[in-house]
Amino acid sequence: MEFNAITKSIFEIIDMEPIPVNKTTSLKEELDVDSLQMVNLMTRLAETFDVPFARFIEHADLIDTMGGIYQIITGEVKS
């Protein structure tokens, strides 16, 4: 799974025009994603990429950055 494919999905889900991002981009600080949007985002990403939602919960410390979400989706973290 490519980083760009995941970021494209994120922008579609949060209904925002894509902007240049990297793995350190913060969803909360730089993209203004609030807590309700974050829950919706994680739910939709779990469905889209067939990732157990529990993995997002287990690694909640990573979901604030694009790189953290990438790690969760690609399985670079232990479940």
UniProtKB/TrEMBL annotation:
<dbReference type="InterPro" id="IPR009081">
    <property type="entry name" value="PP-bd_ACP"/>
</dbReference>
<dbReference type="Pfam" id="PF00550">
    <property type="entry name" value="PP-binding"/>
</dbReference>
<feature type="domain" description="Carrier">
    <location>
        <begin position="9"/>
        <end position="60"/>
    </location>
</feature>
<protein>
    <recommendedName>
        <fullName>Carrier domain-containing protein</fullName>
    </recommendedName>
</protein>
<dbReference type="InterPro" id="IPR036736">
    <property type="entry name" value="ACP-like_sf"/>
</dbReference>
